Amino acid sequence: MDEERTVKVSKYLARHLRHQPARIGLTLDEGGWVEIGTLIAAASAHGFRFSREELDHVVATNDKRRFAVEGTRIRASQGHTVEVDLGLAPAVPPPYLYHGTVARNLEAIRAEGLRAMDRHDVHLSADRATATRVGARRGRPVVLSVDAAAMHRDGHVFRVSANGVWLTGSVPGRYLRFPAGH
Q1: Opening angle at CA 103, ends 97 and 105, nearest 5
Q2: Would you state the CATH architecture of domain 96-177?
Q3: Strand partners, 43
Q4: What is the pLDDT of residues 128-167, one digit of tens each?
Q5: pLDDT, tens digit (0-9, with 9 covering 90-100), for 20-43
Q6: Keywords of this protein's UniProt record, alphabetized (predicted)?
């Protein structure tokens, strides 16, 4: 499977497993899972065909491990805008986590902190390199440090997804550290 096809299938899966399952007639269970056969049939019925082998390739090679397969079911690991309960237990975060963004968002972040926006949670990275890649998707990246230890001590709940993304409801501005010059 070539890279272009891999990206196309991955984006299709993300759209329908995270944001718009009803668009192709899917109903995710409470944990965000759907039967793989049902997904493939629904996609095909709506004009986008892919095989189980292509799906397995996308799941196995996705550098962000966006999808999880359990038996005959698949779900997105996080990032949903539809209501799901990923069943992730609270976890103690490392002392610092990181968030990649771009300069044009900094004014709003300074005023409001990090908000989940249309997702269920704010997404944080365990290392600067990952946060840099995340921020670079929208332009020149700016990496913010999050004092996760202080947040945790103050009662904020963290969870970590199967693919290592740290999740929390919001990050108030007092826990954020901006790089010099920003």
Answers
A1: 80
A2: Alpha-Beta Barrel (3.20)
A3: none
A4: 999 999 899 889 999 999 999 999 999 999 999 888 899 9
A5: 999 999 999 999 999 999 999 999
A6: NAD, Transferase
Is 0.85 topped by the overall pTM? no
In whole angstroms, give the CA distance from residue 168 to residue 156. Answer: 7
Candidates 1.10.10.970, 3.90.1570.10, 3.90.226.10, 1.10.455.10; CATH matching 3-76: 1.10.10.970
Length of the chain in residues, anyone?
Answer: 182
Q: Side chain identity at 132, as an amino acid letter? A: T
Q: Where are the domains of the chain?
A: 3-76, 96-177
Q: 136 CB contacts (<8 Å, ≥6 apart)? A: 100
Buried b / exposed e along 6-31 (16+ C-beta atoms within 10 A): eebbbebbbebbbbebeebebebeee
